[in-house]
Design goal:
single chain; mainly alpha; 3 helices; 0% strand; globular
Length: 80
């Protein structure tokens, strides 16, 4: 499974687990408009750290704005 597909699947799973209506997960969707709240995002990040062994958010000055930015952050961290 790719980093992208792992992230998208995790967002969908967490959204379903918390009863959230998840927006279309296109790259240009703004994270705050995705249907997840801050608790859900924290759970997503924790799951991704377990799944991918990465926590790129701990070293960024700015939180990603869109789904695409979020995915790129993880993909770029996986390459390092």
């Amino acid at each position: 499974m790719t980093t992208r597909s792992t992230i998208l699947l995790t967002i969908q799973k967490i959204g379903a687990a918390y009863g959230r209506d998840i927006a279309s997960l296109d790259d240009d969707v703004v994270l705050v408009d995705s249907g997840l709240d801050s608790l859900c995002f924290a759970v997503v990040v924790a799951h991704l750290e377990d799944e991918l062994g990465l926590d790129p958010l701990s070293s960024v000055a700015r939180f990603p704005v869109t789904i695409g930015d979020f995915i790129k952050l993880y993909e770029n961290s996986a390459k390092q």
